[in-house]
Amino acid sequence: MNNRMVRVCTGIFVGAIALATVEPVVAGTFRNGWQYAVDPSYDSYGSVNGGIQVGGTIYEIYGMAIKEDPITNRITVALNSNLPLTGNPTGSEVCNGTTCFPVENNSVAWGDIFFDVSGTGNFQEAFDNGQIVGVRFSPNNDSRTPDGSRLETGVYTGITGANVAGQNAGFRNLYHNRQLVKDRGDLGNREPWMGDIAWNNPYYGSYGSSSGSWATSENLMPNIIANGEKRGDVTIESEAALVAQGFDPSWFFQTGSQILGFSFEKIPELVGDFIATLLQECINDGISLIGSLSEPSSTPVLPEPDLCDIPMRNEQAYIIQPTRIQGDLKIFENTFSHLWYDPDPEMGYTFRGQQDTLFTEILNFPCGLDADDKFTVSVGNLPLGEFQPGQSVNFSQLIPGITGVPEFTITGINPENDYTPFPSESQFASQLKFNVETPSFTIETFYVSVPEPNSVLSLILLGGAGVSVRFLRKKSKR
Known about the structure:
seven-stranded antiparallel sheet, 2 domains, 7 helices, PEP-CTERM protein-sorting domain-containing protein, six-stranded antiparallel sheet, mainly beta, single chain, signal
């Protein structure tokens, strides 16, 4: 092995002193009782003044969050989007140049949210097995009962789904959407996303692998409840009510014109790991959230979910692979923030941002570890401490006065260990948050050990030899 010198960025006196007292915080996408999913700001599709616009349309979804309250036994869903609760009032049709498409009910509204609690890892199979809990919260969407009347808002089990995109100038499925988003949008090599899941993830089956046709029912992705047994009512929640419960709109990269939400009483079927999928009636955008709901509890505070216990978060299909590989260097170009990235286990790695990309937080570490497995995170020669799964490293908290770091190192990895619950697919995946929603960065195998955390004081005494840390400073607002 060729030894590599570590770039020094010491001289961070205040930040180094703070290291001794800062405790790691719970990681994943779990914050203050809420489980978050982030969606890009560039992948919605809409008609604007007779022309097509991709990104930033009225249908754009920026994120979703879900919280359960053990005292009230209620689940609350918060949405950050540009689409109002009652949808986009379009009139009877939407036109694109010389082509017009009919719109039922004179509006394109939200679809219904589907909670998959099956554990099958397959959206279609969960529907077939009746293991989807559906919630209709938009009062004027096109959900209908078998006799044709509109479905009441509420929580439903034993549901069947239907696709109403054809009546809403929309898309058959995720693949069909991606075709036109990529064809008509200025995305370059960026891809649309579905929150926690890629549009073409195997979880969505043929809905992400074939456009199909309107005449082929198996290619029409369900986006509303067709029928089912109503089990409870839905209460609409205002932005103020959501924020009062701890929802943080600033967690997302952008804040839409609409912060809205709804809540409902938790039913027995909603326990354990789940995947929530929400599409609009037109499937012009959509989002998914992988999370976990607790067993019934009499305690006022729920235990924070161990996101490492959710297989859907750790399977190889849900971890981002490099765009390309050059020797020991794994290159990720225009990916998406908040996701899991996969280098194979080695003794250590250096993560480097490209262009304007900064690392703002390590949200979580790889799963499947022994209790005594810990990893050292360092910025240059400055160790920030030892961390485990379920903990995070927030660089701006540990080193005050910065937005993020352009590079960091993880060491202390045993390449003989299996770092996921799937030994045949061993990997050392880390969940990363960036200052930009489409980061570019590299991961390089690291062969030189860094000082142990107890040597931080000696680094302070050395004084950093006048090394500049300007690259860590917050950018001034223009």
